[in-house]
Design goal:
The protein is α/β, with parallel strands linked by helices. It contains 8 helices and 10 strands. It folds into 2 domains: about 120 residues, HUPs (Rossmann fold, 3-Layer(aba) Sandwich), CATH 3.40.50; about 120 residues, HUPs (Rossmann fold, 3-Layer(aba) Sandwich). Helix content is about 35%, strand content about 20%. Strands 3-2-1-4-5-10-9-6-7-8 form a 10-stranded mixed beta sheet, sandwiched between helices. Helix 7 packs parallel to helix 8. This is Universal stress protein.
Length: about 280
């Protein structure tokens, strides 16, 4: 892994995300790109203010410059934190309406690490961006951090799977799990699901072997819906990482269709890693 991209809205959760990213960077030798897109206030002008337009424009520009200056200071403060010494962190400030989502998809990276605000809908879920768009169009795995993590080295890993051969094109994880890491491949059986569990088990065996995963369990869980099944099992097993799979911009897998991704990301109490096929 060479580059970890960390989008931020400069909130206090930035340090929590950076701590995880720095820990991963130290074990992989990666560099970090810390990305923030400046948000400008919207000024509504009517014909009543037409004569004052030059004054308004100068005032607005001065205000925008101050906003950018303040944002750059905060961004530099995060990147220059002595706690992150030894890891190269490059701060990038997007101005003049440059979109964060576009920058994320254009920026070369092996992993995106983002923060989560909680159960308020996907558009506000991931700090500083439209979560659904970022997850759908991200060119690399996305690690979502829900709360500060003292030492991120997941060992109890729940991988929620759907039987889809396109998943077999997914590369290995962007970072190493704990040496004693146990993968639990979870398949949620809903009342309308008629798949044969033995067939799912065979698919999981092939999938795990193709990824070089030798220590794993196959688990089925009956639930009213897929999100509930994932969340209930993760909580019951005290998982420290939930792994979900997507097709990126080509559309989410059945596992993530509808409100599944939103529900899991909003309500999970553990980090969530989203892998793209």
């Amino acid at each position: 892994m060479k580059t970890i991209l960390v989008p931020t809205d400069l909130s206090p959760m930035t340090d929590a995300v950076l701590s995880v990213a720095v820990g991963l960077a130290r074990t992989t030798g990666a560099e970090i790109v810390l990305l923030h897109s400046v948000t400008y206030p919207t000024m509504m002008l009517t014909s009543a203010y037409a004569e004052a337009l030059p004054i308004v424009t100068e005032t607005t520009l001065a205000s925008y410059e101050k906003i950018e200056e303040d944002a750059r200071k905060v961004l530099d403060g995060f990147s220059n934190n002595p706690a992150y010494a030894g890891v190269k962190i490059t701060p990038i400030l997007l101005t003049n309406g440059q979109g964060l989502v576009g920058a994320i998809t254009d920026q070369p990276a092996d992993l995106i690490v983002m923060a989560s605000k909680g159960a308020s809908g996907l558009e506000e879920l991931l700090i500083g961006s439209n979560a659904e768009t970022v997850v759908r169009y991200a060119h690399c795995p996305v690690l979502v951090i829900k709360h500060p993590v003292a030492h991120f080295q997941p060992e109890n890993i729940v991988c929620a799977v759907d039987v889809d051969d396109k998943l077999k094109s997914i590369k290995r994880y962007p970072f190493q799990m704990g040496e004693q890491g146990l993968h639990q491949f979870l398949y949620v059986i809903t009342p309308t699901d008629n798949r044969d569990p033995d067939g799912v088990r065979d698919w999981v065996n092939d999938f795990a072997c193709a990824k070089g995963i030798t220590e794993f369990e196959f688990v089925t869980r009956h639930a009213r819906n897929v999100p509930d099944g994932i969340l209930e099992y993760a909580e019951a097993t005290k998982a420290d990482l939930i792994v979900l799979f997507t097709h990126g911009h080509k559309g989410l897998l059945h596992l993530l269709e509808g409100s599944v991704a939103e529900d899991v990301l909003n309500h999970a109490n553990t980090p969530v890693l989203i892998m793209r096929a």
